[in-house]
Design a protein that fits this description.
Rossmann fold; globular; 3-stranded antiparallel beta sheet; 2 domains; alpha/beta
Length: about 250
């Protein structure tokens, strides 16, 4: 069954042509007719489907539209044209720790972040020990978040998200923090979630991981370049990069 359908999706942004650094320059631009903008197309006519229970990877160069595409699928950004249809509860991991308050305790931040991710207070209380246990920070539950490293904060955020019981998990390139062993632990947990029926849509800059982790892969550079077998698509990406980096 298809759970994600992206059909002819395009997205553009308006970028100022002139750089405005001061209040005076801002006022000058207003009196001279305002800032001039140019249109930047982040995505053009992208179409694909993701089946229930798939681990679907997206690779491509920086600036190729990967995060924009995930944001549209997650419902955070609207497309300028085309449509997206999603079936099931979607939980995006597009920026670990967005919504955290460094002045509050770890416990309070888990409650707030869990609520943002759609958990009830009862669910958070029931899963609190599991969240801290996976993040390996049980002894810091009452510490202020600002006393923890960025890696430890990311652990808390990731651990909270994976306890939300999604149907579809959308993962941007966020598993680059912390030590190697913890990253492996995160990928093992994602694999377990997939085996339990969760569909996973992820972006990665690690071709080796994509080949061994995903069922299918899409190569994106503002447009869909290729889609299919992970090994074949990754080889195409590496070949393009070796000859002439995709721009």
């Amino acid at each position: 069954m298809t759970v994600i359908e992206v059909r002819n999706v395009s997205k553009k942004f308006r970028i100022p042509v002139e750089r405005v650094d001061t209040v005076f320059e801002r006022l000058l631009s207003l009196f001279s007719g305002g800032l001039r903008y140019r249109e930047f197309w982040a995505l053009r006519d992208v179409s694909f489907t993701v089946n229930e229970g798939e681990i679907f990877g997206i690779i491509g160069p920086n600036g190729g539209g990967k995060t924009t595409l995930l944001s549209i699928v997650a419902g955070i950004l609207p497309p300028d044209s085309g449509e997206v249809r999603v079936k099931g509860k979607v939980v995006p991991i597009l920026g670990l720790g967005i919504g955290f308050n460094p002045e509050l305790s770890v416990r309070d931040n888990v409650i707030i972040y869990g609520t943002i991710m759609g958990l009830s207070r009862r669910e958070i209380d029931r899963k609190f020990e599991d969240i801290l246990g996976f993040a390996e920070i049980e002894e810091f539950s009452n510490a202020k978040l600002k006393t923890l490293s960025s890696g430890m904060r990311a652990r808390i955020a990731f651990s909270t998200v994976i306890n939300t019981e999604p149907d579809i998990l959308i993962v941007d390139e966020v598993l680059t923090v912390g030590d190697v062993q913890f990253r492996k632990k995160c990928y093992r947990r994602l694999k377990e979630m997939n085996e339990e029926g969760v569909t996973i849509l992820l972006v990665s800059h690690a071709p080796g991981m994509v080949k061994g982790f995903c069922d299918r892969v899409l190569l994106l550079n503002k447009r869909l370049i290729a889609i299919g077998d992970p090994g074949e698509v990754v080889r195409m990406y590496e070949k393009f990069n070796a000859k002439s980096p995709i721009k």
